[in-house]
Amino acid sequence: DAKIDLNGNGVTCPPLNSTADGSPDDRSLLTMLGLFFVESGGPTGTTRHHTPDSVYDGLSMTLMLAENVRTGVDPITPNTNWANPDPHRTMFYFSPAVCKSLKCSKGHVNYALANNGSQGINASLTEPEGSPWPSSFHAGDGVNMVFADGHLRFISRVIDGAVYAALFSPQGQKLMSTALWQRLVDDAAVP
């Protein structure tokens, strides 16, 4: 898998406690972009987590879980199923295609692509088991998603990519000074 450079400075996956990635570093930006972290954090694992107090965008506006009919059984690992807690098998996220060439530098971030192409909602219905993109066979062509406050909502396959990406972020407000700023209103339209 290719590595995404969230701060766009050309440094990816530096050692833990390294200052080589600058500020804000990719790990800090990852914290702002989702509730869960898909990194090992070294031999002792990742120790970061969110609490209700760290979800600045509101628990009712932050995605936590989604349906995925492609989670399923892995024929290579027969003891794996849809209830496996391994995040590499059951995670979901919006498409890394939002950053041109996986480098999230100024002018290269397009959140309209967060729910697009083969990585959008329900686009993986014919993909092999283990595809991480939310999917279901519901009438209405969308998926049920659970928000961090516990409420459930049906999200249509045609949700705007920028809105979809903003729903992932628990701390989108902190992204304002970065290339990953989640602007839901066109800057040109703002006086």
Structural commentary:
By secondary structure, this protein is largely without helices or strands. Helices cover 10% and strands 8% of the residues. It has helices at 26-33, 87-90, 161-168, and strands at residues 63-66, 142-147, 152-156. The chain has a three-stranded antiparallel beta sheet, with no helix packed on it. Strand 2 and strand 3 (152-156) form a beta hairpin. The longest helix is centred in the N-terminal third of the chain and has 8 residues, at 26-33.
Number of helices: 3
Helix content: 10-25%
Percent of sequence in beta strands: 5-15%
Unreliably modeled segments: none
Q: Mean pLDDT, as a whole number?
A: 83
Structural class by SSE content: little secondary structure
Strand order of the largest sheet: 1-2-3
Assembly type: single chain
Nearest-angstrom radius of gyration? 17 Å
Largest sheet: 3 strands, antiparallel
H/E element order: HEHEEH
Shape: globular
